[in-house]
Amino acid sequence: MRIIRCKDYADMSRKTANIISAQVILKPNCKLGLATGTTPIGAYEQLIKWYEKGDVDFSEVSTYNLDEYLGLGGDHPQSYRYFMNDTFFDHINIDKTRTHVPDGSNLDAEAACAAYDELMAAAGPLDLQLLGIGRNGHVGFNEPGESFSKGTHCVELAQSTIEANSRLFDSIDDVPRKAYSMGVQNIMSAKTILVAASGADKAQAVHDMIYGPVSPRCTASILQLHADCFVVADEAALSLC
CA nearest 239: which of 205, 188, 195? Predict the structure, then answer.
């Protein structure tokens, strides 16, 4: 792992955006794996500014998002498809037919997961996978467990994840209890992985990701085995490292 230490969230966001934009500039038709949540918002905002200045062109880029809530269609304001459109895709020149998110409206979990795996297999390895990290060390919605997941699968969300995500809903009762998520094998197949982390509440998870034993009890620890992984984190997130 290569650790890039940042002074604060703004610095972390800019450095994260720098790595993503460099990938797009070097390979205009690259395949990006993208993440949702509050951590990457600053990076997306920076990328939009650079697009508006003419510094980066997304017209040939394809994207594949990590996850989606089960039971939420793309027009639902709390869906990750809606989040990506509202936060990023609507503000750049990307072809939305090239942007992919698991189909949360498909309640047939086996079919929905198989369809996303087939889509990714046809695309081939992602050039760059952006990740956040949960307080319990999850990446995507791959919660701590007894083994590492492989392909896209339906996940029962941990209570800590539900509580963390409840800030985005009117009530914790509105947070879906299940989601579709890329598996660890999907994630590890990316050529380059970029983990963004911010805040003291992520410090233990970041420490365990970097220094802890490789264990499904901290899903992110598997990234120690990836050949090309960047961790871009602010001082608070790296306070235990």
Answer: 205
